[in-house]
Design a protein that fits this description.
The structure is a single chain. By secondary structure, this protein is α+β, with helices and mostly antiparallel strands. Helix content is 47%, strand content 19%. It folds into 3 domains: 59 residues, Nucleic acid-binding proteins (OB fold (Dihydrolipoamide Acetyltransferase, E2P)), CATH 2.40.50; 67 residues, Orthogonal Bundle (DNA polymerase, domain 1), CATH 1.10.150; 47 residues. It is built from 9 helices and 5 strands, in the order E-E-E-H-E-E-H-H-H-H-H-H-H-H. A 5-stranded mixed beta barrel has the order 1-2-3-5-4. Helix 4 crosses helix 6, helix 7 packs across helix 8 and helix 7 packs across helix 9. The chain is globular, with a radius of gyration of 17 Å.
Length: 190
């Protein structure tokens, strides 16, 4: 199994990169955030998961071992395929996603296109015990607050992607919904 690649980025698409390693180009599906962080022609490394299908072999690449670990947990759930798993990992840090699962915040998962409430609840139920076994620590923050913040800012017309990015920059000591909305609006206004 291919679990790690290091090489030169020879192509950057919206959903994948081609990584040239020892004369072989590997098509690696990755998060948009990871792809944007790479420079075409520059060197990159990726922790990978090889997904074997009846008609294809697909590589999914991640910047960190923690992202890969979370992805591999997610795709063990019936109804969550590699593309949905990648979309979930792309929405936030592994710590925040694991924290949402521990806080039983199924609504947080429904932010991903294609993940309905039933599937989100299934993710929460099936992964709660497994999250404790991860090599990283889930965030202690109350992800329910951020779900409310996201809803409020989306109502104001901001996209989920922009709101998620702004929330990453809101200090952790800002805890109330109103205060987090104010801080996020300052960031979005820049």
């Amino acid at each position: 199994m291919i679990s790690y690649l290091e090489g030169k980025v020879i192509y950057k698409g919206q959903r994948h990169i081609i990584l040239l390693t020892n004369g072989v180009g590997y098509k690696v599906f990755a998060t948009e955030r990871y792809i944007k962080s790479l420079d075409k022609g520059g060197n990159a490394e990726a922790f990978t998961h090889l997904n074997v299908k009846e008609d294809a072999l697909e590589l999914y690449g991640f910047k960190t071992r923690e992202e890969l670990e979370l992805f591999e947990l997610l795709i063990t759930i019936s109804g969550v395929g590699p593309r949905a798993g990648l979309a979930i990992v792309a929405m936030d840090s592994p710590d925040a996603i694991a924290g949402a699962i521990l806080n039983e915040d199924a609504k947080y998962m429904t932010q991903v296109s294609g993940i309905g409430l039933k599937t989100a609840q299934k993710i929460v139920i099936e992964l709660q015990d497994k999250i404790a076994k991860l090599s990283f620590k889930p965030e202690e923050k109350n992800s329910i607050v951020d779900s409310d913040v996201m809803s409020a800012l989306e109502t104001l017309g901001y996209s989920q992607k922009d709101v998620r990015e702004a929330l990453r920059h809101v200090p952790k000591d800002v805890e109330s919904v109103e205060a987090r909305v104010r801080e996020a609006l300052k960031i979005l206004g820049k």
